[in-house]
Amino acid sequence: xxxxxxxxxxxxxxxxxxxxCWLQSHxxxxxxxxxxxxxxxxxxxxxxxxxxxxxxxxxxxxLVKPVLEGSAVPQPSRSSTGSGASVFSVDTVVLNDLTxxxxxxxxxxxxxxxxxxxxxxxxxxxxxxxxxSKFSAANxxxxxxxxxxxxxxxxxxxxxxxKDRASIIQRFVLVxxxxxxxxxxxxxSAIVLALQSVVISRLQRTMQLINEPTRRQLSDMGxxxxxxxxxxxxxxxGYYGPMIPILRxxxxxxxxxxxxxPKTMQGTSSRLIHFDKYNKLVKAIRKALVHQKSVYxxxxxxxHMRCIDRQVRSMSLGEELDAKLxxxxxxxxxxxxxxxxxxxxxxxxxxxx
Length: 353
Hints:
Layout: H1 5-25, H2 33-45, H3 51-69, E1 79-80, E2 86-87, H4 100-116, H5 120-128, H6 137-158, H7 162-181, H8 185-195, H9 198-201, H10 204-208, H11 212-237, H12 247-258, E3 264-266, E4 271-273, H13 275-288, H14 302-313, H15 319-349
Antiparallel strand pairs: 1-2, 3-4
Helix pairs in contact: 2-3, 4-7, 4-14, 6-7, 6-8, 6-15, 7-8, 7-11, 8-11, 12-13
């Protein structure tokens, strides 16, 4: 087939745009030397002296070079070129690059921004189940909290071996504890509930590998959320300092109390709007949002924030995700049980107890 020079350039450009989009949407969780090398060789195979081709080769070479030298992969920044095109940014920071304090700090900043964006009208919209997206800040904050829980569950269940899962659990217990120290009870509750959920707690072999201090720490935070959050509610009464509360619990309490008051009352000739109900509702919501005045003086690392935010927001809540997590958990439990039976037989053959 004869292809004109113009068509050839256009094809190469389209191929490179596919690679560019892929790199932007797939943060590399592992530094894959072979993958990066193959991508560079592919770029070379379609190269002539066009600007696009040279740029493609240069960008992939910058990714490959530090891997070959054994150093960290660089992060090109987005900047304008003389031709008006832009060099795309590639986030190469992975979760393992972050300390427990980094994760807790950026979860706190993420949830703090969402919490401070919630207004009284957003809470009313959530309680009354309005569908207007203009007043969805409260639901967005609550949903992000649920996404954090699902994210933690998935990270644990993605680990193939019990010791790996136990290590991840231990790490997130420390993250949850740090969130608690920061007054971020929202993220703390999401992590603790995730680690105490059925899909995690049923993995007996995994749970046995968690060290005793971590078990006690998880149990202590879990007690704060036990008995219909009674201990947490007591904590709120005398709490001073920056805080990100568990908004869904506060909203539940508001709905429970305000729901006892009828929306209308009998007038002399007809039913009238019960304004006292809505006055009390607004006062209760303002009280729930009082911690929006909190000030967090935490330094943000943009790359770390993008790493966490992207992963958390990728959790598509719903029955499909629940089914996937359930299957992963069930498969791990079967593998753990089978492994236990196999080891028991081997020990009996060797005469060991």
